[in-house]
Amino acid sequence: MIRRLFAIFILTLPPLCVFADGTATVSRTASALAREFAFQDFEFTAGNVRTDRATRDIVYTGDARFTQGIALLTADELRYNRAGNTAVARGRVVFTRGPMRMLADELVYNIADGTFSVEAPRLGEFPYYISGARASGSAQAVTLTEATVSYQEPGVFVPQLGAGSLTYTSGPDQRIHTSNTRIGIGAVPVIKLPRLSQGVGGNSFIGNTSGRIGYRGNLGAFLDLGTLVPVADGLRLGGNVGYYTKRGVLFGPAAAYDIATPGGGRMTGSLNTGYIHDNGNRLTDILDRPVPADRGFVTWRHSQGVTPNLRVFGEINYWSDSEIIRDFRRNEFYPVQQPDNFLEADYARDNFIISVFARAQLNSYYPVQQRLPEVRFDLLPSLIGVQGIYQKGQASAASLTDDSPLYLPASIDSNRLDAYYALYRPVAYKDIATLTPVFGARVTHYADANGKKDYTRYLGEIGFDATLRAAGTFDYKNEKWGIDGLRHLVTPRLSYRYIPKADKGSAYIPPVDDQSFSTYLQPLGLGEIRNIDQISSTNTFRIGLDNTLQTRDKEYGSRDLAMLNLAADFRLDRTAPDGEHDLSAIHAELALMPAPWLRFNLYQSFTPQDFTLREINTGFSINDGSLWSAGLSTHYLKGQINEYIAEGRYRLNETYQAYARLRYDAREHRFNERSFGIIQKLGHNLWTIRYGISLYEGQARESKFGFSIEVRLMNF
Q1: The whole model's pTM is what?
Q2: Element (H, E) at 4
Q3: E strand or H helix at 37, and its extent?
Q4: Which of 646, 593, 655 is nearest to 626 (CA)?
């Protein structure tokens, strides 16, 4: 962005030395100058042209303007001095190139060496604004003195960078260098740096800044502050600090980076930390153990494209106890209540992926299936012959450990080799039907079997996937709902898998990758099963029916109005390891979106034998652009959850917006949460201030009442 701003000086100022207008005499002069200085494709116009006898300058006044391509330069006066080989623009100098615009009082350009100087330059391209006392430079570098860079127009609450000197260098390594740097809000400096150097196009001159003040019964009155500032190319450093009257001081460094790496890749990530000696009532953790006084957390996220084919990414989340984030970072806790810790490297080619994956148990109070590590090869579906036969497969070697704090035995170790290979051939009939037979085999070797030195399990599968496709169109139109014709797509699906004796040898297999609780239909194929240490025999048909209703759309070609998908399993072996009947629960997914401002979603699972509703989740949302929105959702799981959530917002004016959130527990007949507040925008909508009040019931740790004021500077 800043590179384009300074390109104003470099790419568009040379035409100032060329002068022409519509008269025959001046046109001949301009033509000669153009040949002499090799400038082409320009046009100059002015209401008046004269020669200054004292200086022998050619002077253009009266709507003086110069154009070249998309560049336009205007001034009260344009003056060319042939003896000094300079061009001077004075009085309301305006330069425009596309979306970029520069204003100045005076500009002097030296044609011989390409250097220039500008008095009081003001330039920018949305959303940046740059000004300075003066600027000078060449095609290789531009320097501004007493420079100021603002995000959008300068203002009291607008982030701003000031520098005694700011230099931009062009070329392959485009950079900005500053001295006597001041980063602040408006005219108030917050952070001072002796110098700053970073590549153009990376992070902006100031990072995200946030603040929160309020009161919660379990924390007392509190104040949280956090900020990040750039210190090097693509690197921001800063920290977080919070004071809680009932707990103490929570503090820790923070960082964010977005750095180009050799080979054209990028490395991005963030680090957040915190430590507190907690003097308050800490209660107990999820294992009913006392929470220690010394508490802290470390959160690191990393993603890196090493080469076009190699990618590395991962997360580290260390919590001293299970409640540290819930107590002090509530908004971060509810989306992810059990953090993960992993590192993965993937090398991808056209038809295979090689990966190394490691998962560690850094938080001893959560059960984790550790992989230390797992090396895996995935063969992507690929054609192996002219007969239309495809292959797919995978192979892995893993060192596994399960140190569960909730179950016995406390530790399970397993060294496992696993391989799967399958052949399949799609057979299509026109565009109506497709039948895909599947033949697969899986071999798993356990070097640390239970009661044996080792154990190898051999499994095979046979089956098929079949689909039918049908469509009907209807000439129905409704201008109010934006419906221009209807198309109904119907896709019946039938899959079958037979995996005999899949549970053999279960007594010898360490159950690390075992079955986990889920209310959804699990993968049916042998190659897609993740719980490979606890597989059940399969002789199952899966029946599904997908329905989609669409209409024409001017922008995207078609738009979905409604979807209804149904699916169920029918077990032929009449053994249901999960306690279900031969016919599983019927799973239904429904979505209605007749207009962009209206949507309804539903997921439902019920047993057809007795029509018992096992689970139902719904979501309904409606909004009127940026004026208001409202939503209602429900969560029901038989015997465990029965919750209703209502949310809404209403824009009071250009500055203020009201919001509310209600969570009602129908099983306990109480409101678990009632939150209300106002959101205020400041400084060209760069800042948001959230004033909130929350009332809780039934919470184990949160207090019954709390209020907060959160201030956040948007990221840019």
Answers
A1: 0.76
A2: helix 2-12
A3: helix 24-37
A4: 655
